[in-house]
Amino acid sequence: MTLSPQDAMHKLVHEYPHGGLVALAARLEMPQQTLRNKASLDRPDGEPRNSHFRLDEVARINRLCNSLALAQSFAADVGAVVMRLPEVPECGDAALLDMVLTNNDEYGQSCAALRDALADGEVDRKEFSNFERETFESVRTQLELLERVRGMVVDRPRRRLQQVKR
């Protein structure tokens, strides 16, 4: 289950990997209590919170934490997903072909996981989890291929080589 944006922010702030809330407040040059109030889920008296994050604060915390949790919570609210783009090193034509073949293999594994899940007419949580994992892996390899080809784009038109007729 995906966290709400407020729950995700609360978790980000309190689980900041370099020292929790105290360290994050120092990095933000914000008083600890102010950060605690803004990240709180509820007021003790049950009233709505009266301290909120500004958009620039949210963006800065997100960069400092380098986490997808907050973006995933916003995306889930609108039925979307967020994935980190892969870092693709320079590669030659053979490596590019290998990426295409890997992409096809991953898609095949995703299809096989779906076939297996549907085999008995029901999809249980374990089967869905396997299908989801394989599908996201397939999407990751497609994005990797996309980024690699994006790196090959030239800003000038290319002259096409004329094939020699035999």
Structural class: mainly alpha
Cα-atom Rg, whole angstroms?
23 Å
Estimated helix fraction:
55-70%
The strand count comes to 0
Shape: flat
Distance between the termini: 63 Å
Approximate strand percentage: under 5%
Kindly state the mean pLDDT as a whole number? 85
Biggest β-sheet description: none
Q: Please, how many helices?
A: 7
Low-confidence stretches: none
Q: What order do the SSEs take from the amino end to the carboxyl end, as H and E?
A: HHHHHHH
List the helices and strands and how they pair.
Elements: H1 5-14, H2 20-28, H3 32-39, H4 55-65, H5 69-77, H6 93-118, H7 125-150
Helix pairs in contact: 1-5, 6-7
Structure description:
There is one protein chain. The chain is an all-alpha fold and 166 residues long. It has helices at 5-14, 20-28, 32-39, 55-65, 69-77, 93-118, 125-150. Helix 1 (5-14) packs antiparallel against helix 5 and helix 6 (93-118) packs antiparallel against helix 7 (125-150).
Write a short abstract of this structure.
The chain is mostly helical. The chain has helices at 5-14, 20-28, 32-39, 55-65, 69-77, 93-118, 125-150. The chain is built from seven helices and no strands.
